[in-house]
């Protein structure tokens, strides 16, 4: 009997006592299917690099995991960056679309001037000890971002 009365008391509406919890931020739900797909493709790519490069790496350096370790390091850095960038609201990128578009054309214009030759073609900008960057790959994404920003719904 006491249990039934207690349950009735809990069902009574609390008038004027609603409190908003402003200290706790809402956490966006994670798309489980997308995360599993990304992780499976990442694992498959690392396995493919291992199977394709293991004999050549063993012959070159005596370490059959030479290229796989580089690929796994790049994958780990990519996963961390993916997590960090997913926490940033995409609306913060809205004012940057014009600068990204102009920057793409500046980088493309710089390739014939400061680009390096590779197999008879200038496609890369040498960053010294870091790496060479391919300007075209980034430009494709930035130009798509620019046109999506222009043609978005108001």
Walk me through the structure:
With 154 residues, the chain is mainly alpha-helical. It has two domains: 59 residues, no CATH class; 66 residues, no CATH class. It has five helices and three strands; from the N terminus they run ααααβββα. It has a three-stranded antiparallel beta sheet. The protein is flat.
Write the layout of secondary structure elements.
Elements: H1 2-11, H2 32-61, H3 66-86, H4 97-114, E1 115-118, E2 121-126, E3 132-134, H5 135-150
Helix pairs in contact: 2-3, 4-5
Number of domains: 2
Q: pLDDT average, as an integer?
A: 79
What is the spatial order of strands in the main beta sheet? 1-2-3
Give helix % range.
55-70%
Compressed to H and E, one letter per element, the order equals HHHHEEEH
Class per helix and strand makeup: mainly alpha
Q: What distance separates the N and C termini?
A: 59 Å
Compute the number of strand runs: 3
Strand content: 5-15%
Number of H- or I-type helical stretches: 5
Sum up the overall morphology in one term. Answer: flat
As a whole number of angstroms, the C-alpha radius of gyration is 26 Å
The major sheet is characterized as: 3 strands, antiparallel
Provide the low-confidence segments as ranges: none
